[in-house]
Write a structure and sequence with these properties.
The complex is a heterodimer of chains A (153) and B (271).
Chain A (H helix, E strand, L loop, with lengths): L1 H9 L8 H9 L1 E6 L4 E3 L7 E7 L1 E6 L7 E7 L3 E2 L13 E4 L3 E7 H10 L1 H27 L7
Antiparallel strand pairs in A: 1-8, 2-7, 3-6, 3-8, 4-5, 4-7
Helix pairs in contact in A: 3-4
Chain B lengths: L3 E12 L2 E8 L13 E6 L3 E6 L10 E6 L3 H7 L6 E8 L12 E7 L3 H13 L7 E7 L11 H6 L4 E6 L9 E2 L16 E6 L2 H13 L7 E4 L15 E2 L2 E2 H4 L2 E3 H8 L5
The complex binds flavin-adenine dinucleotide.
Flavin-adenine dinucleotide sits at the interface of chains B and A.
Chain lengths: 153, 271
């Protein structure tokens, strides 16, 4: 547990988080490893965890019917993977696949959801930290949508 | 200024819509040389003339490499030229990337799509005096892996010169093992000292704007971020006003500008 806490404390996601909350989050965390090609989660499955990627790379994929999967985003070392665990209906919308050996810290979202309901202050702290992650993804998606590298009209 | 006659010595197909032309003067005269960032006006007979950046020179010769993306009338004519055919060339014009100013500093180069072409001579200049610079990073974004330019050089840049090369594409299939996402996401994946760093950006305007904002957020000062602006051009010597951008003419005051200077105009719709 000590090592987990020392990893979490250094991560920007947990910067300036109260000690008691950091302890609580450490209690909900575990180390996890995925082999290259292994799915971390699949579309429509229940979203009960989120991940801090420590090493490796994860592809978020969408598979149009009858076509080969398309990667829409990669998540790399130091980044946060997944936020569907905090928003009903708590289901993943994409597939997440490790493209290489990936080590991560998995946080128990189901447990954290419950704690957030009980302690709104914790809920707010977590939301404040997750919103920039969601915001950055949305901004990136918009830029991908405009097809900046395409030909001009 | 009349175009000088050049001929196509070599053609390199870079991608499905982009070629590099190696242009040599018809009469072997001493060419004026060029600074990284400068461009020539290339004229295809009977079609028209467009500004195209210099993307390098072939060794030993008074030649210019021009990497051209086929987007319209003139670029299509240029991209369709065959070996031995002629083009008219005026130039080099414009100012240069801040290669001297970057000495003793880290350098972050951010390119989007065809934007790597004007930046390649800058990278070559940095690498020719590698020990004079700190960490050098190349962050390159493109639409798909098929659109990536100069990828055969990435390994040399990484292996021989220690450049932190990071590439990202907008979408990919499973065969692509690299990054997917916008180029700005790569900024946090390389190390540089924001208080002692120069950034050079070239690509579509939206990409440059978001890249500059992200670099500022990472701690770079606005006057340490440089980018090239593109506008339609005619005379290329500051007379006709075609390429006016705010108070500046891109052809003679640019195409390289510092972000603090052009920030008020870069997000203005009408300009
Ligand atoms: C200083 C400077 C340096 C440049 N360097 C290069 C270079 O190294 N390589 C290169 O390929 N181009 C470069 N360009 C852009 C190039 O000049 C234009 O693509 C060219 O003028 C288009 O002319 P055209 O007759 O082929 O297309 P047009 O017939 O004028 O346009 C056809 C279509 O293409 C679109 N279009 C025009 N320009 C662009 C563009 N830049 N990107 C995407 N779509 C466009 C138009 O909106 C239109 O829809 C540079 C421009 C400037 C100002």
């Amino acid at each position: 547990m000590k090592t987990l806490e020392s990893v979490l404390i250094k991560h920007p996601f947990f910067e300036n988080l109260e000690d008691s909350y950091l302890n609580l989050m450490t209690g909900c965390a575990k180390n996890i490893k995925f082999d290259a090609g292994q799915f971390i989660y699949r579309q429509d499955e229940e979203a009960n965890q989120f991940y801090i990627i420590r090493q490796g790379k994860v592809a978020l994929e969408i598979c149009p019917p009858g076509k080969t999967p398309v990667t829409v985003q990669t998540v790399n070392e130091g980044e946060i993977l997944g936020w569907a665990w905090l928003v009903p209906p708590y289901r993943w919308r994409f597939d997440a696949r490790a493209t290489e050996l990936t080590r991560a810290i998995a946080l128990d979202g189901k447990c954290l959801r419950k704690k957030c309901e009980e302690d709104k202050n914790l809920g707010y702290e977590l939301l404040k930290r997750l919103l920039p992650v969601i915001g950055r993804t949305m901004e990136a998606t918009r830029l991908q949508l405009v097809d900046v590298y395409g030909k001009r009209d | 200024m009349v175009p000088r006659p050049f001929k196509v010595k070599e053609i390199i197909r870079e991608s499905h819509d982009t070629v590099t032309l190696d242009l040599q003067p018809e009469k072997p005269e001493k060419e004026p040389g060029f600074a990284p960032g400068q461009f020539n006006m290339l004229y295809t007979f009977g079609v028209g003339e467009v500004p195209i950046s210099i993307s390098g020179s072939s060794s030993g010769a008074d030649s210019y490499l021009h990497t051209i993306r086929d987007v319209g009338k003139v670029t299509h004519a240029l991209a369709s030229l065959k070996r031995g055919q002629k083009v008219g060339l005026r130039g080099p014009f414009g100012n240069a990337w801040p290669i001297e100013q970057a000495k003793s500093r880290d350098v972050v180069i951010m390119a989007g799509g065809i934007g790597l072409a004007p930046l390649r001579p800058a990278l070559y200049a940095l690498l020719s005096q590698r020990d004079q610079y700190g960490n050098i990073s190349l962050l390159y974004g493109s639409r798909t892996r098929e659109d990536l330019l100069f990828h055969h050089e990435f390994e040399t840049w990484k292996g021989k010169y220690g450049v932190q090369v990071k590439v990202s594409v907008d979408t990919a299939d499973r065969d692509w093992k690299g990054n997917v996402g916008v180029v700005t996401t790569l900024i946090h994946r390389v190390s540089f000292d924001p208080s002692n760093c120069i950034a050079m950006i070239c690509g579509p305007e939206i990409m440059m704007r978001f890249s500059a904002m992200e670099l500022v957020q990472a701690g770079l000062e606005e006057d340490k971020i440089y980018m090239t602006m593109e506008r339609n051009m005619k005379c290329a010597v500051g007379f006709c006003g075609h390429c006016q951008f705010g108070p500046a003419f891109i052809c003679k005051d640019g195409p390289v500008f510092s972000y603090d200077r052009i920030k008020p105009f870069i997000s203005t719709r009408e300009i």
